[in-house]
Amino acid sequence: MKTNACTALRISAVVVGIALASAPATSSQDCISQVIATSGSGSGNSLLDPWSVAVDALGNTYVTGASTHNAFKIAVGGAVSQIIDASGDGLFGLNTPVAILADAAQNVYVAGFGSNSVFRITATGVISRILASNGDGAGNALLFPSALAVDAAGTLHVAGSGSDNVFRITAPGELSQTVELVLAASGDGAGNPLDRPAALAVDAVGNLYVAGGASDNVFQVTPAGTVTAILDATGDGLGHALDGPEGVAVDGSGTVFVTGAQSDNLFRISAPAQPGQVVREILNDSGDGLGNVFLSPVGIDIDAAGTVFVAASQSHNAFEIRDPGLLSQSVRELIDSSGDGLGHPLTGCRGIAADGLGGVHVAGRSSNNAFRIASGPAAATFRNGLGLNPAVFSEVTPALIGQNWNCQVDLAPSGAVASVVAFTLGGPLNSGLVLAGLVQGELLVLPPLIRPISAELTGQHAILLPPSCSYVGRPYSVQAALFTPGSLQLTNALDLVIGTF
User: Fold this and answer.
1) β-bridge partners, 496
2) Separation between Cα atoms, residue 88 and residue 368, nearest integer Å
3) What is the DSSP string of 432-487?
């Protein structure tokens, strides 16, 4: 059973000074919280069979409900809202959404497996169907879309698992949108067919990678249209076969990773489609070798540091693989069937996504929920405004969950203590404490937590965070302000990252 490090988070602060401090790392401990459950948004919009999960650049999470024919957004602060339902765009319905992603412009794309369609939801909530069963309109149909991928330019790729093909959509949802077929059932045309494409990924230079779930292979499609089979059923050729690839991901160096859902393994392909290509099995059904097995791996994602995250559907767990394929590789189970350890289990996990802020999101198809697993160091940066300019900053303890964090600032040239800041993050009593010195004024907490300015000049203010690990690893800013007749003077500010070690 995984230990849940998160109880309730409470931040209380008054801020002065300018300095930089990074909390020293001690032992890593994961903080696991359920971010959405069967109740969905809690407004009668339930979540059943969450098949896919995604995150955007701001750290918001998106989850599809395949059996409830809808999708939800979980904001950084934990608020849940339904962003599309079975009515689709109001003209064309959505049925069995199994894939979701967000692009750099905060557009969200949802693939309806049962409706043979793809929808775009803009950052302002405008919904439109951008692809239908007629595919490219030139005789190449789209049937049972199962996977999506977007490149750095915003070009969208869609896999049709029933039509055994992949489409490229340039300027998706815009008047200038174009749709073209980039891969068909013939595969590379050299005897390696494509059957039931199940996963897509795009690298930094625009190469597309396609996993054939029933043809037991993976293809690379270059921007120029060259198709090459880079992996087949023989796997690494050393007796480790590939069977039922359901997940594919590519890191910043172009190294490709593939999950074998039926062969219970994970492959690493370096220099894909190049003369020096090397294929290695880097994880098998033994999992971490500590009794945590790795069965039916499906979803896969990679963060900016190259750490690989994989969700295993039949063993009801997810793993983190650092330095994948290298001698220094380490494998760690992030979450198991106990979920958060608070009575919210995880079963049938499939979708997984890293948010780039130290968090990993996993959806449980059978448990009808999703979790965020987070760990990382705390950090605090003080920024001087128009107020006091300290010469010395001292930190007593780091800003960690379940611990007090406090600091004090000495004024130059007198050396007198200007004020003291104290944070309490969780802990047995879940209580907060503020010790204020000379600074007075309301605290302004930038999104997603905002407190309006008031005329109250107590110098002590508390901010309560819900009992969720969704705050771990995310940056927050706190601004102190002084009121004078007819004006507001910003004094000093704190940038805080909540950590677990």
Assistant:
1) 380, 476
2) 21
3) ------S--SPEEE-TT------S---S--EEEEPS-GGGTT-EEEEEEEEEETTE
- Prior bond of 448 cis (ω within 30°): yes
Residue 314 in domain: no
437: Cα within 13 Å, side-chain hemisphere: 17
CB 353 within 8 A of CB 337: no
pLDDT tens per residue across span 98-109 = 999 999 999 999
Count of structural domains, the chain: 1
In a domain, 428, yes or no: yes
Within-domain flag for 475: yes
Are 196 and 214 contacting, i.e. CB atoms less than 8 angstroms apart? yes
160 contacts 141 by C-beta, under 8 angstroms: yes
Q: What's the distance, CA 425 to chain centroid?
A: 23
- Residue 382: which of 370, 392, 368 has the closest Cα? 392
* Domain region containing 482: 378-497
Q: Which residues contact 8 (CB under 8 A, 6 or more apart)?
A: 426, 430, 465, 466, 467
Shortest CA distance to 72 belongs to which of 103, 38, 95? Answer: 38
The helix (run of H) or strand (run of E) holding residue 202 is strand 197-202
Length of the chain counted residue by residue: 501
Task: Look at residue 69 in the predicted model and tell me its pLDDT.
Answer: 98
Distance (Å, whole) CA 275 – CA 256: 15
> Looking at the whole model, is its pTM more than 0.70?
yes
Amino acid at 141: A
> Residues 186-225: pLDDT tens digits?
999 999 999 999 999 999 999 999 999 999 999 999 999 9
Binning pLDDT at 50, 70 and 90, where does residue 494 land?
Answer: low
Closest CA relative to residue 226, chosen from 276, 187, 194, 256: 187
398 domain residue, yes or no:
yes
Name the maximum alpha-carbon separation found in the chain: 81
Long-range CB contact pairs, 75-82, < 8 A, 24+: 75/448, 76/447, 76/448, 76/470, 76/474, 77/448, 77/449, 77/466, 77/470, 78/35, 78/466, 78/468, 78/470, 80/35, 80/36, 80/40, 80/41, 80/42, 81/41, 82/40, 82/41, 82/43, 82/45
**3/301 Cα distance (integer angstroms):** 23
Residues contacting residue 15 through CB under 8 Å, at least 6 positions apart? 382, 421, 439, 443, 478, 479, 480, 492, 493, 494
Rounded to whole angstroms, the Cα distance separating 479 from 298 reads 44
Nearest partner of 474 among 406, 376, 407, 383, judged by Cα: 376
* Residues 38, 338: Cα–Cα separation, whole Å: 17
Round to the nearest angstrom and report the end-to-end CA distance of the chain.
20
| Higher-pLDDT residue of 90, 435 | 90
Please name which of 266, 272, 268, 226 lies closest in space to residue 246, comparing C-alpha atoms. Answer: 266
Residue 252 is classified by DSSP as T
